[in-house]
Design brief:
708 residues; Jelly Rolls; Elongation Factor Tu (Ef-tu), domain 3; 7-stranded mixed beta sheet; 21% helix
Length: 708
Amino acid sequence: MKVNKPAQVKGNVKSQKWKDVRGKRHRPPINSSDLNSSPVMARVIQEHQAAVRKKKPNVKRLKKKAKTVPGSKKSTSPPGVKKSHTQTQTNGSSMLTVDESDESQDSQDWKALAQSTYRNGVESPDDMDIGTPGRLEGEALHYCAERDDRQKHAVLVMQKDQTLCFRGKCFLTCLYGRVEVMGFTIEEGQQSYPLFSPASHCPLTIVALGSADDTRDDGTEAAAILRKYLSSASRKKLVKRIRLNSSVILLEPMETPLTRFLSSFADLSELFSPPVTELMSAVLDTPLNGLGMIPLANNIEGLTMSKSYRDALNTVVNACRGDMDGCAVILVCGTKNVGKSTFIRVLLNTLLNHTASIDYLEADLGQTEVTPAGCLSLSTIREPLLGPPFTHQSTPEHMIYYGQSSCESDLDRYLESLKALWHRRSQSRETPVIINTMGWIKGFGFQLLVDMIRIFPVSHVVQLGHGGSTQCPALTPEFLRTAHGCQTHPPAQTALDEFTESHSPPRSYVHLIVQSDFQGVARQGTSKHQRTNEHRELSLLAYLSQLQSPDPGPVRPLHCLTPYQVPHSAVAVGVTHCEVAPSHMLYAVNASLVGLCCLGEKVMSRGGPVLLSQAPICPCVGFGVLRGIDMVRGLYFLLTPVAPSILRNVNCLLLGAISLPACILATQSGFEGEMPYVTTDYSFDLSGAGKLRVFKGLIRPGQSGTTQ
């Protein structure tokens, strides 16, 4: 695929220009950007954080369970999807307006059920298998689930320890009892939560936990709840299935700008359907299928936790809940495809059952959690992560665009970027911190792990492995006393150190080993959408879906969106991953993804484009697509979902090795003839046709005086 030369963009552009035009004639820019020293940077970061907080309100979870239906739900559903509401009293509880005749009838139904079921302590034949733990599938779903086609939702009754594994997407609201998804407990009285179970990742499993209150009445309360969501016939059928330890959940279809945007591409239209390997295990013709959910039979595994997996989770959660000296800082490491990201999501969700927020430091460039690939970021997680990364893309409090999915070409820039992010975090915060790391655990990758454990005040190191091994040396405190990193080295010690009063023992931490034993561990998925490069494309597409209108309607391709016009003199342009001749710089950035960054110094131009000779370490507030370049008028045309109030502070565009997905450019509708930015008249066999990779400062371990 070839990028055409910069050309004038036809069509409308936004009349509102970036107001932060630092123009006239100035000297060339200085490529220095200390993230922590400039007062301008402090103002930029404060404005950015204020915008993030305004965009993402903090919805606190209820401390006590409400005794009836939730009063209101989080407005996460898109227009066109109707959500149910009840009247709410001032104390946060809900009150139902019910018909007395229906209420008495439900009460009679429940009493009759209780008498028939528990007479002499013997269950009736029809109800013998109601409370059997295990997977809900097949015929069982017809007995414990009812769908209301008029309101477009379904109600499912689950007994304690029963599970539902599925593919698809939906909103889940707990009406009675408790359920758990990916470690997060959803109780009655809470908001509805979006669940995403695409074919790209392990299927989600809903686990019924029953009621936390053992003193509840005979179940007429649950029967009254059903009245709001089901017809009389369906209600009478389900009320027979409710027990004191039952959980009742409401499942509703979900359609968002993200799902509409992804489904507009032919290759992604079946993303939320079972993959080919699961088609024979899909349970069809159930009350749930019409809502975007496809249950799976019990031969398909959901999330599999080994004993060491559960023990490590319990140890970390108990440490975060206990009285530690300072906050817990948990570093998670391990080789590729061993389950680090899933472990972190479960850990985050479990901690959210006990605390309002967790800080998350992203150090994995290739498999980022809340941003597109190529970013290092520091985020505050306040809501559960109930899906893969592309389903919860958000704006971190602090972010640096490294521009590559691996750091092997510039290790120093990688470590300095992480240090800059950590220095931006308030040292007085007592919120737990989770650090995600790369799957590169050999050679320099292992030395980077040693550096990170020394750089950050780590309290726990969770090391994942498989097959009874960790695939690299165990990162215990004892091992770190003699290990060499890329930037750090063990302190020089003498025989007199142990007798010196001023000698302080090395800082210690808890080292935990987790053995993953799920199917396919240490192997990259081979089915469609399961490769790591496809995961990176999904995250980037999810970010670009924010350009779409929140209102229901057809998806608009890039050439139909109105771009911002940015003067050449207002921003500097740089490349992070390779050397580009100045005369070719604008050809390289045209029709590409760029990081929107904030240099600590003013951009000084002599009238033309401002080019950076090296990549700076500076804050990044988001991403944009450089749709076109007008050399005559001296304008860049940029598409971005970043708010205008934040764009005023942007004065640098950084191009990295993270490319736009091919489907973005290859599926532009409304054109006759050749598509913009796309050509087939190109040969990669020509000398120099491919990109040249530059490695900075890499030396072999044998040359650095290390033994690793």
